[in-house]
Amino acid sequence: HEIKNPLTPIQLSAERLKRKYQNEVTSDPETFTTCTDTIIRQVEDIGRMVDEFSSFARMPQPSIGRENLSHLIREVVTLERSRTEDITIDLALPDGDMMLRCDRRQVSRALTNILKNAAESVESRILQDKSEDGEGDPGRISVAVIDGRGQGGGDESVAVIVEDNGIGLPEAGRERLTEPYVTTRSKGTGLGLAIVRKIMEDHQGDLRLEDRPGGGARISLVFRDLDETANDGDKDPMKVATGLGLG
């Protein structure tokens, strides 16, 4: 709070200065506009970083319930499509509704973080192509789901797979990308994948980082159906375990 509280008056003051004086500044209006825009943009960036730090430090225990994973994924993809209109996001879901015991809010957040990372990677690759005087391929992200439950193959998991044609994952230090505060982006906080990893651990699932054939990245969120003893709503999983003689 000590960091974030001053940000609002700083941003509001900069916005007010811009509105009130941008038509009155005649000596160097371009510099005036650039400086006020920079203040506003940087304050917004700081606010987002503070939110991420705070959110990571206070991540709640998951509230597990039976959720419609198909609807959840559609909602997240629809929102991200509206944010990244220049990038095509394809979605492939199995027929029918997929039900999964999970924390709906946390799984939505994990998928949102993955899609945001994918979009930023694609945008970076497009800028890189343009700087090299090349057109490059259009930005594309795909989201697919493989439901292995009840298929008789021994794989009782649900995998949400996100692929992009961005700049790809780094070769060096890749294993550290899910650690807190580790990032390859100049403005990144290094918490996006750390939050996703924590969510997947809380769901007894896996986060897999791989190269996409042809370039880019493939990120998989692998879920397994949680036991019915996992907390529904406000149940504490440790209390459930203790009650069963497991604690």
Blueprint (SSEs and pairs):
Elements: H1 7-21, H2 29-57, E1 65-68, H3 69-83, E2 88-92, E3 99-102, H4 104-131, E4 140-147, E5 157-164, H5 192-202, E6 206-211, E7 217-224, H6 237-243
Parallel strand pairs: 2-4
Antiparallel strand pairs: 1-3, 4-5, 5-7, 6-7
Helix pairs in contact: 1-2, 3-4, 4-5
Numbering strands along the chain, what is their spatial order in the largest sheet?
2-4-5-7-6
Low-pLDDT windows of residues:
233-247
Number of domains: 2
Kindly report the CATH topology of the largest domain.
Heat Shock Protein 90
- CATH-assigned homologous superfamily of the largest domain: Histidine kinase-like ATPase, C-terminal domain
Average pLDDT figure: 82
Please tell me about this protein's structure:
By secondary structure, the protein is α+β, with helices and mostly antiparallel strands. It has 2 domains: 51 residues; 160 residues, Histidine kinase-like ATPase, C-terminal domain (Heat Shock Protein 90, 2-Layer Sandwich), CATH 3.30.565. Helices cover 43% and strands 17% of the residues. It is built from 6 helices and 7 strands, in the order ααβαββαββαββα. The strands form 2 sheets. It has a 5-stranded mixed β-sheet with strand order 2-4-5-7-6. β6 and β7 form a beta hairpin. The radius of gyration is 22 Å and the shape is globular.
